[in-house]
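Lab channel / #folding
Pinned by the channel admin:
"Please post every new chain as: sequence first, then the structure tokens as a reply. Keep commentary short and put observations after the output so the thread stays searchable."

First post following the new format, from NK:
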Amino acid sequence: MDTTNTTNTTSPVRGIMTYFMGAIAVLSCPCHLPILIALLSGTAASAFLSENIGLAAVLLLPVFLLSAFATWRLLDKKETDRQQ
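Reply from TO:
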């Protein structure tokens, strides 16, 4: 165990959080909205998204931006920790 790293930035929880935020970013990306509608076809969610695609894009855009930024920060932090 490395005792010089007192912040423990390489924890398994951090890795899981990176994958989780990345998955949210991919699923909430507005350009993937037609694919999401096709995957959910036959459900109430697909019907709602199909009829309100503009509203869905506006609501999903901030979720996508925040999760993409969080994923980028988590990945960037890992890269700088390895170089030290």
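NK: The first helix runs from residue 12 to 28.
TO: also worth noting, The mean pLDDT is 84.
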